[in-house]
Amino acid sequence: ELMGSADCKGRSLEGRIRTAVEKVTWKQISFALASVVVLLTLQTLALPHHDSRSVHAANVNGEAGTEFVIFGTTMYPNATGVRFEEALESVNNARSAGWAIVICDSSPDPEVRVRLKLAGASVFAQHKSGGKGQGLREALQAAVDMVPPTAPDAIFAYQEIEKSDMPFHWGEVKDKMVRTGADIAVPW
Description:
Layout: H1 13-23, H2 26-45, E1 67-74, H3 82-96, E2 100-105, H4 110-119, E3 122-125, H5 131-146, E4 154-158, H6 170-180
Parallel strand pairs: 1-2, 1-4, 2-3
Helix pairs in contact: 2-5, 3-4
């Protein structure tokens, strides 16, 4: 979109790239990087394509059909504060919407994991050092492990856990992905 805009007409490739980079937001970069992490991890995990799975299994969401698992990372100094409260609300909203949610946590305070687990998340301490990228790989692996091999298909939804209203929008994203056969979606 940016590369073909009027701002870039007649400019060199370097000029067009510079214009695109200046106009892209950190939110767009974050979603794009998360999408790449998911694609690379799924390719590495060699998750079977839906054609190799049974179409009659119940899933982690309690219904027959496509699995849907939210995954993400957290790190809080302790189990207080606005960001932590938003994460708890997000877990509650995900569970009330019927979604499974997996969190890889690197908080120094174990109470963070206890309270997230009590709210309904599948949460565990990050096993390896490596920052958020390593945490995302571990969270995605745990989400993949949660899906039974007999599931017909699966959607793994990366979410910044503090975005507490996002669980209410995942149903629309899931429906559109299933209807269109999309392999990846970047909701804005």
